[in-house]
TrEMBL record:
The keyword ATP-binding applies. It comes from the Bacteria. Keywords: ATP-binding, Nucleotide-binding. This is Iron-sulfur cluster assembly ATPase protein SufC.
Length: 259
């Protein structure tokens, strides 16, 4: 008997300022599965990420979002986070005056309902910092203030490790990273998955290169607010060769196989 879905998007339609951006998105992710969602600029990738975050500017007009079989479509951001959803931002915010460790303590308290001391938390994250190749002094720096692009993304992987979500959305995690930083961040994601094999991951990306390191189980292509094709890594390889033009316009193939 196959495992029930961990995360489902059913017939999702989303409007932004009265304009429909997502036009019926369906997506299913099983426990332990890595799914990649690829699409050109303007395809609706950021809209989907913001909708999963429960951003108030993004209005769901039809469809549902299900997490562990429960309808979370109307749940606010904080409740989604406490339930075990995690979203890594494309552009993480700087929070002056709040150290990485203080932020993790507050987030973990909200997620787990326990109040760890700074010392307890510092001990808990030291091994993860070592596994993720993060300098121990990192924990005392103000969140994302003066961080390089790679440091910001590694910090998000650290958050994902410490908060122990059941489902993680990585929104354009490869954005602005050079190849060395990309390898480090990808290795970090795989380290977390090794520790938590049931973690489901949705990787939202414009480029194929991060997929070479994360090896997704399934690749979906989003064009004009709809998923127009789904397949394995061969689909991403084809996309690299041909670009998105094969899936644009009325002649493009829709459904589960390549056009």
């Amino acid at each position: 008997m196959s495992a029930p879905p961990l995360f489902e998007i059913q017939g999702l339609h989303v409007e932004v300022e009265g304009t429909e951006i997502l036009k019926g998105v369906d997506l299913t992710i099983l426990p332990g599965q890595v799914a990649a969602l690829m699409g050109p600029n303007g395809s609706g990738k950021s809209t989907l990420a913001n909708t999963l975050l429960a951003h108030p500017d993004y209005q769901v007009t039809a469809g549902r979002i299900l997490f562990k079989g429960e309808d979370i479509t109307s749940w606010p951001t904080d409740v989604r986070g406490k339930s075990g959803l995690f979203l890594a931002f494309q552009y993480p915010e700087e929070i002056p005056g709040v150290s990485v460790i203080q932020f993790l303590r507050q987030a973990l308290s909200a997620r787990k309902g326990i109040d760890l001391s700074i010392l307890e938390l510092r001990l808990a994250i030291m091994s993860w910092m070592d596994r993720l190749g993060i300098d121990p002094s990192f924990g005392d720096r103000y969140l994302n203030e003066g961080f390089s692009g790679g440091e910001k993304k590694r910090n998000e992987v650290l958050q994902m490790a410490i908060l122990e979500p059941e489902f993680a959305v990585l929104d354009e995690t490869d954005s602005g990273l050079d190849i060395d930083a990309l390898k480090v961040v990808s290795k970090g994601v795989q380290e977390v998955r090794t520790d938590r094999p049931d973690l489901g991951v949705l990787v939202i990306t414009h480029y194929q290169r991060i997929l070479q390191y994360l090896a997704p189980d399934v690749v979906h292509i989003l064009v004009d607010g709809r998923i127009v094709a789904s397949g394995g890594m061969d689909l991403a390889d084809r996309l690299e060769r041909e670009g998105y033009e094969s899936w644009r316009g009325p002649s493009a193939g829709h459904g589960t196989g390549p056009a």
